[in-house]
Amino acid sequence: MEAQQLVAWNLRRLRVAKGVSQDDLALSAEIERAYVGYLERGKRNPTVVTLEKLSNALGIHISELFTEPEGDVVPITPLRAGRKKK
């Protein structure tokens, strides 16, 4: 897996596992929400500063964004749509 796709997969996997929306992650990391979407789809190359902001917002070490998946890569189930929290 290429580095860009690896970061994209891990970013989405970690965000969904923590139950954080793209909006909330972007707000916490002080980046644009659309940019989070581009990163998760592997359409943009983030800077080290951006990776640091994202990892801090997720409460993880930056190296977790480069973790190789074990076995087959399974699709990540998206969070429930909508912006309202219950």
UniProtKB/TrEMBL annotation:
Domain HTH cro/C1-type: 11-65
Source taxon at top rank: Bacteria
Keywords: DNA-binding
Pfam family name, one: HTH_3
PROSITE patterns in the cross-refs: HTH_CROC1
InterPro entries on file: Cro/C1-type_HTH, Lambda_DNA-bd_dom_sf, TransReg_Diox_bact_type
Protein name: Helix-turn-helix domain-containing protein
Species, as recorded: Camelimonas fluminis
